[in-house]
Each structure stands twice: as structure tokens, then as C-alpha cells.
User: What shape does this take?
Amino acid sequence: MNHRLRIDTSALRVPLQSIDFRGSFRQGRGWFSQACKTGLVRCLVLLLAPLLLWPHIGLAQNKGAQDKAAQVKIAQERVVNLYAWADYFDPKVLDDFTKETGIKIVYDTYDTSEALDAHLALGRSGYDVVVLSGPLLQKAIANDLLLKLNRAKLPAARGLWPEIMGRLSIYDPGNLYAVNYMWFTLGLTYNAKMIEDRQGAAALASWDVIFRPDIMKKFADCGVEVQDSPHELFAATLHYMGVNPRSKSLVDLKRAADLLYGLRRNVKKFRATNDLSDVVGGDACLTLGWSSDTAQASKQAADSNSGVTIDYAIPKGGTLILLDNLAIPKDAAHQDDAYALINYLLRPDIAARNTKATHFANGVLASKNFLPPEILSDPSIYPDEAAMKSFFVMGLYGAAEQAFIAREWLRVKNGDIKPASTKNDKSKGGKNDKTAGKKDEKPRVKSR
Assistant: This one.
């Protein structure tokens, strides 16, 4: 017969702090002696209790040590939170950065500059490195949202392209808050065969092909498309007129709007996306847009085996350069890791790898030594020296100018909105106004 010893431990009132589980009773010895005198069971329980409880105490101590180690590991984990356009980096470059430094990259993307602007404006963006345009950079600096860069932590910045950084200084005087990552231009992408059949590429040597309706109409039958980007196109139009492309004068903007209005009769589509499949497929022969889209169109043409050649031209007289730049938000939680990532991206070999992956020109001059001839000779990526000297940048518009441009751009696209008025408008289009009722009168612009 098996007998089980049932021990009632409720009678035991042993304070745990009086027991040293390492083998001796430095406290409560008198109590222990007294307990043994009252009964054998109590004495046995007191002797066995440390042995019974020790495994549980050991597990608790071990778990506590593991939790502490996990907390230390989390605290020591290095991470950088990156916010940029999608597909703006060679994925292998980001992986190699983590392998080389041990810093994990969390890469979030936005699809509009407005989304980035909203995040930064909160003052609690949650990001350590952001890619932002020139005008947005200027706005963020004015609102004290960015960290002033410590160049001692960016030794690779010595290789930045002086000419590009000079353009960037218009937004960031002294280049104190940002470094250039990538840049691209506004120009003409075209189907070479279709253009040759009409006027030839020589006809694209002047911006007149866009801003003079009598010239643009020669291409209207094969399809002309224009990027739906009003701020950039207003800047380009101001420059064509011989006016400062960063002018905020409503009078200047009104003249630019009137000139742009002449486009609509010959434009097949105002293109809201970067898709140039119409040019590749022959539904359009000419498009005004970003140089960065040309490489993708050329690839589409090559993949289709259609024999179509897609080319890119920057008309004489200068063009708009658009700059995307790396900066650190002032609220960045991992500033040292942010510096490490930016410095890594500025290495010439790394900058070249990102250019090869994205077909954007980068801001590191020495990276050209790592690029193949077909990229260096592609005017949609690296324009020639003459074109680079003619680059200009757009300005940052205030709320009043933005509202004016938005209304006028709708008029350009739709043609069914009354033109916005300015304080300097003297004519109200009355009965005695000799210009009333006249349409599509060519505005006077500086000859080019």
C-alpha cells in the first residue's frame, strides 16, 4: 500500500526573508529550533523547503536575467528610419549598408511631396533621414524642422558636385542643412522616327516648339503631351519670357498663364503620371516632362522589339533642374545612424550604383568614374556642359501664389474657367475695350 505524506503547510508562518537558500539560517535560528521541538513534520518541512523552492527561484532569476539582456539588446540595436520616393535606391545598396555597419534600415515611401510636407510639419516625423525637393527643403529650413549638418560626420561630402551644390544653395544658403542625392531636368522626350518624319530633331532645339502655337501645331497630328506639373511649368514659362523663374509677382504669373493657355489647342494630353507608353506605342510623338522618365520609356521600347527609338532633348536657352536632397529632421531619434547612412550614400561607388539602378544623375561628381559610357553619354541623365551651365531652379510659392497658379492651370487644361484677375488689371473687358473678345492672342515674350 502506498502511503502519501500529506503536509499541511498552512500552519507554517515562516517569513521567507528569514531563510537563506544558499544553505544556512543566519536569521530565525531560534524560531527553527522551537519549531522542531513542536513536531517532526514541521522540522522536516523547514529542512526540505529550500530544496523544493530552489528550482523555481532559479528559473525566476534566469528569466529576469534574460529579460534584462533583451532590453539591453533592444537599446543597443542600431536603426535608421528612411523616408523617400519609392524605388529611389538600389535595394542591394541598402542591404550592403546593413551588412557593413550593422544598422538596420526601415524604408518608408511617399507618393507626393505633400505627404512628406505633412509629416515634417508635425515636428514628430518619426524619421531619421528624408529625401526632399529644393522648395520643400527651403520651407522646412524656414520652419526650423531640420538639423544643421555636422560636416565632420560626413567626410564623403567632400566629393559633392560643386555646380549642383551651388544650385542647391539657392534653397539652402551655405549648404548647411542638406546634401544633394539625385537630380533631373525638364525637357522633351520624343519618338525619333515620328519627329524625323515631320520636322526633324532640329525643330526641338528651341523652346518655341512648346510656347509658340504656330510651331507646336506642326506636331499636333502625331500627339503632344505635357506633364501635369503647374509649378514647374510656370517656372519654365517665366524663364522663357525672360523673367526670373522664381518670380512671385502675380502680374508675371498672369502673363505666364496667358502664354501657357496657348498650349491647350495643340496638346493631346496633360499627363499626370510618369508613364510614357503613349510615346513608345506611337500614340504620341512628343512629350514635355522629366528626363528621368526617358530611360524607362527607352527600356519599354527595347523590350517590345518594335524598333522604336526614344530620345531626349533640352532646348537651347536653359532648362529647369530639379534637386532631391538628403536631410535629417530635427526630431530624428537616431542621428548618428542617420549620418552613417548619408555618408555611405555619398561614397562615389555607392552613388554610382544608385544611378545605375534608378537612371537619375547623382550629386557626387567622382561617381562618374564608376559609371559606364552609355549612362555618361545619355543626355536624359547627364546633359552636356553647355546645358548644365544654363540650368535654373524654381522658387517656393506662398499660399496666394499657389492658389493663383492652381486656378490658372485649370484654365490652361480645361479652357472653361474665367481668368484670375490681379490688382494691376486695368481692363475689365468692357464695351470700349478694344481687346475684348479677342482670343488666343500671342503674348509678347523675349525673343529666344
In short: Residues 1-28, 69-75, 425-448 have pLDDT under 50 and may be disordered. Strands lie at 79-85, 104-110, 129-133, 179-191, 224-227, 269-271, 286-290, 310-313, 321-327, 361-362.
